[in-house]
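Weekly sync, protein design subgroup
Attendees: M.S., D.O., the rotation student, P.L. (late)

Item 1: inverse folding check
M.S. brought a backbone from last month's batch and wanted to see whether the design step gives back something sensible before we order anything. D.O. pointed out we never logged the input encoding, so this time it goes straight into the notes. Structure tokens as presented (930 positions):
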């Protein structure tokens, strides 16, 4: 079977062409054929076939096209040539079967100067004879056009190489036709005109050669305002002087021994696994025009070099003029980084530049290096670069060379100058399992899957750590995976287990090589981050740890991110993987005295408490936090609105939970728990809230702080109500009420009584709920708390609505709206409007209900209360549904479902159940058609 893509996409077998299908199938087949013999990932195929206009169902369409192509190929050759593998598909064809690959192979075999001239001309004639028109004819899209442009240039280069070979063989007349056609097609291509001049002179037509020179010189001056280049001027002078030695058509010269083509890449990993996404991205970028610089960056031990070498070896055949490699030792633990000049000298020697021609001046060195690479298709792999300054002198000046740089530094200035970036992160779990399996064998991993996952977790999915753990297992075949997992969990944070034979295969030493390149402020913050409980932090928290201004903390965090010791995983928030966290903690305990570590954590706790108090004041301005301490000096975020306060809570909740579990917040846990009560409640994080309260209650009991206990018992009761645990709710409410009564705290007692009313109402005890709501109103009145009276009246109206007394419910809720509006309690006003809308809905005034609901929703949005916005949207949908307006109802329910899903709120099923019921009803009512 033969595949043709240097022209229309065609499949030939047995001397005849076989149809492939529609144009899109031609595109899929072409996208596979350019990498025949190698798997092409699905993402790469989608990008090549559809580009930026890929439809949502592109992957499914691709599978359908592949199936049709597979059937067509089977009918033509009765064999399985299109196979699945490597995360995509592959055409199992060799170079000889694909005209484009055969063309490139023939041309590459003609480049060495040792090739016999006759053989060179013959091979190039064969290569040029493979072209049947416009390459990839009929295949649309940006990828196809990029490939066409690249191949046209290769065709031009091959034509000129063939013409020069024919001229040297004395066959100048044979070359005239193709050269003339090329010069007419590319009138400004000086190389083509220079070669045509040489052919004309060698064919006995010097005057025609001089006419060609005059014509292009005039055109260059008129259209571009420039003179002919050196090659064209040299050909002109040679014709004028009848200097046969300067012309390609002069007497044949003895062929010099060819310089060896450099092939400096180190050996790849035999069992390379994973990194399918990164490999696909590299494949995509190498097709870019021009793919000058690819920066592969990531943290220490993440496998940047392994990935870069593996990929470079995979695409080596695209670079017939050489593969250059240097380990720049940017982060070597004991050896200084390689100076750019030293690397250039080694490269020039590899490129067969005589040593006496290599200058000593750095500027002259770089200039000679770029001159040596001009016009060559080479790949330059600059491994382990320290920073952009070390790399910049090693960058070629021509677009024919591809540079791949690996570094722990982000190389920001190179990216700003147009380099492409490939970030290498921790392995996805499936690829981590594959790596462990490849090293220790499927049987052992399959026999202990849980232990295998424990090993991967303790190695933080870091390739170097997994490789070292696997080496330990491989050298101890009787060890169980569980025993290694235990060692990793208990032996000095696991770092002592992850040791290889030298500094480059010792996890601690690899991390140290990055750490020791840090300045003092960065090193100190890195150590302090080991004390932070995680999973991430923002600049204000880092400033608290450092005892420094936020601006200094941000600059220091950015420096650590550039060094890939931490990651800015979302704007303004930084994290590090577990092994680096353990290493930083180890450094902190070894370097920083215990009083300094304790002070740093105290500042951190002060920061979170102050921020929590500020957030609580914004979200619940009319509910004074029941228990708070005197404010301490700390670094504050700029929280100015309830929305910003809730965003702060969403970002910091996992951190506060981790800090609480680690005991870091014990001195502040009571104040934090009381401050965060409404925020946990609003977001529906009741399991987390219950856990925090239990920790805080234990501290409050140790202190003998009855006021704090009362506040926390009430908060624990609210969480229990939401978690459908009535016994726990009742027990904590009794204890809260008893403590408030003992202390004579009317406001605390009023809020708790209102919570009791809400709890009893949810239990179906509506009369008792109304009784306690009325008592809460009276307690708030006695305390002079008008906003509290409004909240109590709202609760009272809500209970009467459920008792069926709509007039009384409406009166109470209307009064609640007035009081809360006067008090400026926007969130409480939203609740009262929602309750009044509910009463109007039950009373039959659905238009009035929707109007009140919409006012409530505006207030909830204003205060950032997304849960109650969703709760009210559910009721808006119910009202429209009762009116028979299913479309409006579904719109409201979808809005509620979107919010609750984003919040991961347990109430998300409420909206979904309503949507599902309308879906079912629509299907039931749908007419049956024949």
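Designed sequence read out in the meeting:
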């Amino acid at each position: 079977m033969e595949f043709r893509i240097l022209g229309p996409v065609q499949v030939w077998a047995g001397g005849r062409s076989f149809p492939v299908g529609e144009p899109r199938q031609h595109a899929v087949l072409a996208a596979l054929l350019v990498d025949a013999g190698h798997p092409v990932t699905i993402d790469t195929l989608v990008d090549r076939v559809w580009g930026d206009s890929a439809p949502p169902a592109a992957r499914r369409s691709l599978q359908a096209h592949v199936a049709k192509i597979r059937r067509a190929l089977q009918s033509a050759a009765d064999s399985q040539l299109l196979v699945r593998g490597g995360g995509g598909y592959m055409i199992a064809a060799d170079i000889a079967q694909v005209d484009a690959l055969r063309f490139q192979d023939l041309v590459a075999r003609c480049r060495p100067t040792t090739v016999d001239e006759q053989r060179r001309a013959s091979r190039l004639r064969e290569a040029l004879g493979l072209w049947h028109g416009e390459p990839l004819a009929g295949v649309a899209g940006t990828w196809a056009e990029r490939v066409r442009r690249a191949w046209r240039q290769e065709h031009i280069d091959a034509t000129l190489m063939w013409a020069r070979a024919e001229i040297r063989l004395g066959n100048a007349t044979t070359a005239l036709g193709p050269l003339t056609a090329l010069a007419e097609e590319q009138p400004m291509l000086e190389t083509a005109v220079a070669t045509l001049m040489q052919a004309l002179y060698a064919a006995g037509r010097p005057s025609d050669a001089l006419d060609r020179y005059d014509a292009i010189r005039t055109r260059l001056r008129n259209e571009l305002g420039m003179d002919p280049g050196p090659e064209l001027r040299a050909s002109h002078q040679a014709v004028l002087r009848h200097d046969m030695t300067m012309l390609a058509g002069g007497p044949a010269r003895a062929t010099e021994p060819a310089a060896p083509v450099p092939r400096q890449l180190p050996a790849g990993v035999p069992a390379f696994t994973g990194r399918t996404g990164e490999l696909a991205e590299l494949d995509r970028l190498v097709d870019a025009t021009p793919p000058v610089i690819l920066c592969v960056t990531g943290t220490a031990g993440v496998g940047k070099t392994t990935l870069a070498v593996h990929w470079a070896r995979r695409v080596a055949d695209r670079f017939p003029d050489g593969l250059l490699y240097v380990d720049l030792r940017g982060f070597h633990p004991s050896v200084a980084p390689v100076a750019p000049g030293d690397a250039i000298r080694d490269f020039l020697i590899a490129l067969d530049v005589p040593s006496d021609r290599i200058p000593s001046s750095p500027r002259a060195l770089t200039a000679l290096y770029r001159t040596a690479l001009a016009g060559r298709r080479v790949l330059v792999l600059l491994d382990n670069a320290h920073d952009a300054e070390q790399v910049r002198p090693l960058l070629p000046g021509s677009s024919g060379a591809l540079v791949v740089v690996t570094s722990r530094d982000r190389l920001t200035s190179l990216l700003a100058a147009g380099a492409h970036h490939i970030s290498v992160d921790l392995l996805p779990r499936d690829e981590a399992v594959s790596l462990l399996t490849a090293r220790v064998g499927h049987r052992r991993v399959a026999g202990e899957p849980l232990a295998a996952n424990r090993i991967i977790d303790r190695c933080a999915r870091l390739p170097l750590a997994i490789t070292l753990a696997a080496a330990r297992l491989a050298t101890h075949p009787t060890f169980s995976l569980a025993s290694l997992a235990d060692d990793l969990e208990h032996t000095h944070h696991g770092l002592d287990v992850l040791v290889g034979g030298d500094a480059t295969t010792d996890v601690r030493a690899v991390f140290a090589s990055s750490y020791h390149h840090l300045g003092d402020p960065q090193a100190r913050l890195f150590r302090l981050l080991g004390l932070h409980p995680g999973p991430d932090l923002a600049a204000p928290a880092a400033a608290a740890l450092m005892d420094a201004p936020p601006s200094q903390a941000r600059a220091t965090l950015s420096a650590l991110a550039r060094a890939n010791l931490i990651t800015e995983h979302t704007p303004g928030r930084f994290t590090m993987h577990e092994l680096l966290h353990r290493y930083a903690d180890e450094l902190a305990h070894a370097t920083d005295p215990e009083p300094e570590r304790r002070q740093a954590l105290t500042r951190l706790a002060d920061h979170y408490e102050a921020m929590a108090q500020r957030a609580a004041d914004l979200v619940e301005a009319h509910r004074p936090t029941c228990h708070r301490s005197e404010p301490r000096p700390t670094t504050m975020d700029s929280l100015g609105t309830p929305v910003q306060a809730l965003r702060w809570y969403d970002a910091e909740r996992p951190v506060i939970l981790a800090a609480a579990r680690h005991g870091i917040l014990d001195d502040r846990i009571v104040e934090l728990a009381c401050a965060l009560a409404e925020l946990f409640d609003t977001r529906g994080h009741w399991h987390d809230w219950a856990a925090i309260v239990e920790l805080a209650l234990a501290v409050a009991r140790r202190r003998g702080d009855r006021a704090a206990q009362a506040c926390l018992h009430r908060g624990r009761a609210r969480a229990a109500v939401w978690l459908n645990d009535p016994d726990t709710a009742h027990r904590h409410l009794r204890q809260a009420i008893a403590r408030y009564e003992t202390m004579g705290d009317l406001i605390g007692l009023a809020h708790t009584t209102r919570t009791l009313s809400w709890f009893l109402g949810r239990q179906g005890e509506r009369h008792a709920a109304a009784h306690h709501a009325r008592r809460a109103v009276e307690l708030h009145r006695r305390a002079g708390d008008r906003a509290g009276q409004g909240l109590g009246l709202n609760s009272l109206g809500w209970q009467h609505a459920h008792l069926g007394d709509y007039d009384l419910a409406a009166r109470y809720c209307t009064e609640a709206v007035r009081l809360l509006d006067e008090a400026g309690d926007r969130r409480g006003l939203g609740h009262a409007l929602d309750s009044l809308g509910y009463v109007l809905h039950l009373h039959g005034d659905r238009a009035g209900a929707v109007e009140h609901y919409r006012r409530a929703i505006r207030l909830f949005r204003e205060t950032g209360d997304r849960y109650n916005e969703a709760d009210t949207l559910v009721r808006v949908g119910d009202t429209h549904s009762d009116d028979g307006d299913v479309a409006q109802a579904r719109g409201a329910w979808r809005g509620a479902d979107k919010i609750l899903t984003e919040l991961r709120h347990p109430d998300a099923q409420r909206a979904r159940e309503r949507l599902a019921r309308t879906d079912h009803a629509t299907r039931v009512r749908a007419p049956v058609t024949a």
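Discussion: Confidence is low (pLDDT under 50) at residues 249-258, 924-930. Residues 757 and 769 are 4 Å apart (CA to CA).
Action: P.L. to compare against the previous round before Friday.
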